[in-house]
Specification:
Layout: E1 2-7, H1 12-21, E2 25-31, H2 34-44, E3 47-50, H3 56-64, E4 70-75, H4 90-111, E5 115-124, H5 137-157, E6 163-169, H6 192-204, E7 213-216
Parallel strand pairs: 1-2, 1-4, 2-3, 4-5, 5-6, 6-7
């Protein structure tokens, strides 16, 4: 049975990914919220690692849990925060960058010695990379950085037969949306289960196949 580590696994897209992969894989689930994480870990028979990936201690805790071969890493943990151009400050940038960019890059670097040939790194990006939304500049920049790094990582890991994929969902029906966000029409959003299915496809595809980037949009085609 292959081993997969999933970050941000206590709710939303991360929990959906865990549920779709659990029947065929051994899972290590990483998140900050202990109660939720331990509940889903019990449900799925997975290993729970309570860690804040915005900190050096959290990154060490997450990587140290892997004591054998790792077949896939899903960098799903992320922060969504809005700010107009005039409101962007250091705190806003740091909060987004530490989780959306630094954490996946540093965790992947730490776990690369454990990743096996034929395995995969899957990074959860966003459809904002292909679109422009007001008040979303810093968040969009963080996801553009994630995708740029993913492209380079793909080339670096190609000789080891480790695939690197990006899943870019449109607006997804999870609790990530701020209560005051007027555009959050949940009836027109992507389902977390559909994003999870795209991740499963990347991980379980035959070794000779590679899905470099999958965009998941609602049935209406909007983002």
């Amino acid at each position: 049975m292959s081993t997969i580590l999933i970050t941000g696994a206590s709710s939303g897209i991360g929990a959906a990914i865990a549920r779709i992969l659990a029947p065929r894989h051994r899972l290590i689930l990483v998140a900050r919220r202990r109660d939720r994480l331990e509940a889903i870990a019990r449900e799925l028979g997975a290993t729970a690692v309570v860690a804040d990936l915005a900190t050096a201690e959290g990154l060490v805790a997450a990587s140290a849990t892997v004591d054998g071969p790792l077949h896939a890493l899903v960098n799903n943990a992320g922060i969504f925060a809005l700010a107009g151009a005039e409101a962007i400050d250091r705190a806003h940038l740091d909060a987004l960058w530490r989780i959306n960019v630094d954490a996946p890059m540093l965790l992947t670097a730490a776990l690369l010695p454990r990743l096996v040939g034929g395995g995969a790194v899957v990074n959860i990006s966003s459809a904002v990379v292909d679109n422009a939304f007001a008040r979303c500049a810093a968040y969009t920049a963080s996801k553009c950085a994630l995708e740029g790094w993913s492209r380079v990582l793909r080339e670096e890991l190609r000789p080891r037969a480790i695939r690197v994929g990006v899943v870019a969902p449109g607006a997804t029906d999870t609790e990530i949306w701020p209560a005051d966000f007027a555009g959050a029409d949940r009836s027109r959003m992507v389902r977390a289960a559909d994003v999870a299915a795209a991740v499963q496809l990347m991980i379980e595809a035959p070794a000779a196949s590679s899905f470099d980037r999958i965009t998941v949009t609602p049935g209406s085609g909007s983002v």
